[in-house]
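Page 42, continued from yesterday. The earlier attempt failed because a stray header line got pasted into the input along with the sequence. Redoing it now with the clean sequence only.
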Amino acid sequence: MSQTLHPQHTALSLAASGVPVLPLRRGKVPFGNCTACADNACGGRPNMKTPGPCRCAAPCHGWAAATTDPATIVSPTWAAAWRQAVCVAYHPGGAGLTVVDLDDADAIRWARTTLPATRTVPTTRGEHWIYRGTMTSRNAVRPGVDIKSTMAYARWLGPGIGTMAALPDAVRAPAVKEPSRPQRAPQTLSGPVRGGQGECPHRTPAFLERGVAMAEQRITEAAGAVHATVYRTFLAVLSRHGRCGCLTDAHVNRLFTAAQAKGETARHCADAWANACTALGM
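This time it went through. Structure tokens are written below.
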């Protein structure tokens, strides 16, 4: 199945095969919560902290919006999202799957010497290795390796090749032994203030400009581990400014430009941004 199809058509085909899907907007990230669900006004159950589908009729709450219901996918409520969507994502855990996201050649070499062969899907700079079975998702379990399963989403990049193997202990082990240190960043979150619901202190031009400029500088001055630095910097920016609506496309483009100047691809920037959103429950 080709992603060159209209995203909604791709989504319907995947849903018919039992794969829960959701649209992704520019930047390859999920759509934000609707007004009724802002600040978990809907009750908070599908806030990405607990399992379960989103009960809102809109494509809210990231991975929790994923659905196999064709009526939902073609509903008027989702129509605006599909018009803006750039691609389709799916919830691996909801389909009983785990995706090992290998982001570079070193990660692929590690997988080939450590993990059992399974179905593989090529990505812009690496591969997705897909296994039957679910587990807790983890980002950066080792350099260039993310695990996407429960409470996470992955881009649909095609059916891949090879026979899908059962999820082995060798995949679970890195997630247990090497937890991602960037996951600690959400501890710095302050109470979110939604735009339009009161004055946002982050909108102070000097405060926001300084934050974005410092993030650009951090990426630009990275002497090594650029991939990890970009992810941690995106995570920090979203932790401070991501929930109140003060970040604009111009700010995000500045960060992406700084990362690409260090050799990162546009695809990797989008994936790192999406992973940071997922880690923060956005």
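Notes: Residues 205-220 form the longest helix (16 residues).
Reminder to self: strip header lines before submitting.
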